[in-house]
C-alpha cells in the first residue's frame, strides 16, 4: 500500500481569501495529523449518539439519508469542486469512495438500530484493525494492533453472544467498509486538490442512498425538526470528521491511521455515557486504557520511523 504524501495542500476548509465566501476554519491545519484524527473521532461518535436519539423520528435509513444529503450540500457549497480536468481513474476513485461511504453509514446505522452503540463501534473497528495488520510492513505494528484488539474485546465485555446476530453482522460489514473507506479516502486525497474529492464523493453517496431513504422513511424526511437534527448529525458525523480524516491521511500512513481508529470505541463509550446515560464499568475503563496505549505506541513508532528516514536522507 502506498504511503500517503506528507504534503498538506491548502484547502477551502483551511484558508480564506478576502471576499470569497464564508469564513473558513483556519486553525485546523495546526492540529497535526494525530490531532486531526482525534478531533474527527470525537465529532463522529458524538454525532452517532445524536443519531441514535433521532432514529425514532426518521428510522435508521432516514437518518443516513439526511446525514448524507446535508453533508453533501454543505461540502459542495463550501468546497465548490471543479468537475473538469479529472481523468477516468480519478472519477472511478471518487465514485467508489462515495459508494463506500454510503455503504459504511447504512450498515452502521442498521447495526446501532439493533445493538447498543458501544458494542457496535467495538465490532466495527475490527475492520481498521485488520487493515492495520495487512497494510503495515513492520512487526511492531502487529503488536500494537493485537494490543488494541484485546482492548476492543474487553470493551465489549468479552462476550458478544447476547447481541442480536443481525446487528452483529451489520457492524462487522460496516467495519469492512470502514477499512475500504480508509484506503479510498487516502487515494482520493492524493488525486483531488483541497477537499474537492470528498465533496464529490459525498454527493455520489447521497444520490446512491436517496432511493433507500425515500422508500424507507417517506414523508418523515420532510419534518422540519427531523431535518434540523439530521443536519446536525451530518455536520458532526460527516462534514467535520471526513474532512479531518482526509487531511490526516495526507500525512499519516494507512496502517498508523487504522490503529488510531481503535480509539473510536472509547470515544463512543464516552459519548454514550454523556448523551445516552450508558455507564462505564472498571473492565471497560481498562479496555479503553489498552486501546489508547496501543494507539500511542503506533504513533510513536511512526514518528520514530520518520526521524530515522529524515536522518538517513540527511546523511546521504
Give a brief rundown of this model.
With 316 residues, this protein is an all-alpha fold. It has helices at residues 32-79, 88-112, 117-124, 126-135, 139-155, 165-191, 196-217, 224-249, 254-260, 264-276, 282-315.
Strand-helix topology:
Layout: H1 32-79, H2 88-112, H3 117-124, H4 126-135, H5 139-155, H6 165-191, H7 196-217, H8 224-249, H9 254-260, H10 264-276, H11 282-315
Helix pairs in contact: 1-2, 1-7, 1-8, 1-10, 2-6, 2-7, 3-6, 3-10, 4-5, 4-6, 4-9, 5-11, 6-8
Give a description of the structure:
With 316 residues, this protein is mainly alpha-helical. It contains 11 helices and no strands.
Order of helices and strands: HHHHHHHHHHH
Rg over CA atoms: 19 Å
Largest sheet: none
Q: Which range does the strand content fall in? A: under 5%
Q: What would the average pLDDT be, to the nearest integer?
A: 75
How many strands in all? 0
Sum up the overall morphology in one term. Answer: globular
Termini distance?
A: 25 Å
Total number of helices: 11
Low-confidence stretches: 1-28, 308-316
- Helicity level: over 70%
Structural class: mainly alpha
Amino acid at each position: 500500500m502506498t504511503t500517503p504524501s506528507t504534503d498538506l495542500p491548502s484547502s477551502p476548509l483551511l484558508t480564506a481569501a478576502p471576499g470569497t465566501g464564508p469564513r473558513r476554519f483556519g486553525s485546523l491545519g495546526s492540529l497535526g495529523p494525530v490531532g486531526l484524527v482525534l478531533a474527527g473521532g470525537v465529532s463522529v461518535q458524538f454525532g452517532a449518539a445524536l443519531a441514535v436519539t433521532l432514529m425514532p423520528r426518521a428510522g435508521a435509513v432516514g437518518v443516513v439519508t439526511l446525514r448524507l444529503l446535508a453533508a453533501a450540500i454543505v461540502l459542495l457549497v463550501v468546497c465548490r469542486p471543479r468537475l473538469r480536468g479529472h481523468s477516468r481513474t480519478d472519477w472511478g476513485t471518487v465514485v467508489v469512495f462515495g459508494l463506500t461511504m454510503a455503504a459504511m453509514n447504512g450498515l452502521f446505522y442498521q447495526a446501532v438500530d439493533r445493538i447498543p452503540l458501544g458494542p457496535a463501534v467495538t465490532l466495527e473497528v475490527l475492520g481498521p484493525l485488520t487493515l492495520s495488520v495487512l497494510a503495515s510492513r513492520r512487526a511492531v505494528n502487529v503488536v500494537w494492533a493485537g494490543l488494541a484488539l484485546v482492548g476492543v474485546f474487553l470493551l465489549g465485555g468479552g462476550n458478544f453472544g447476547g447481541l442480536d446476530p443481525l446487528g452483529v453482522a451489520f457492524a462487522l460489514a460496516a467495519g469492512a467498509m470502514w477499512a475500504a473507506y480508509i484506503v479510498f479516502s487516502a487515494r482520493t486525497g492524493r488525486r483531488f486538490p483541497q477537499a474537492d474529492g470528498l465533496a464529490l464523493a459525498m454527493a455520489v453517496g447521497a444520490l446512491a442512498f436517496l432511493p433507500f431513504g425515500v422508500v424507507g422513511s417517506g414523508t418523515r424526511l420532510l419534518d422540519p425538526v427531523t431535518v434540523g437534527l439530521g443536519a446536525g448529525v451530518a455536520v458532526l458525523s460527516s462534514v467535520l470528521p471526513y474532512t479531518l480524516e482526509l487531511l490526516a491521511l495526507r500525512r499519516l500512513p494507512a496502517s498508523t491511521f487504522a490503529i488510531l481508529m481503535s480509539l473510536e470505541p472509547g470515544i463512543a463509550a464516552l459519548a454514550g455515557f454523556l448523551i445516552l446515560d450508558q455507564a462505564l464499568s472498571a473492565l471497560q475503563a481498562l479496555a479503553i486504557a489498552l486501546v489508547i496505549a496501543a494507539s500511542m505506541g503506533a504513533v510513536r513508532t511512526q514518528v520514530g520511523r520518520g526521524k530515522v528516514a529524515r536522518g538517513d536522507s540527511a546523511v546521504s
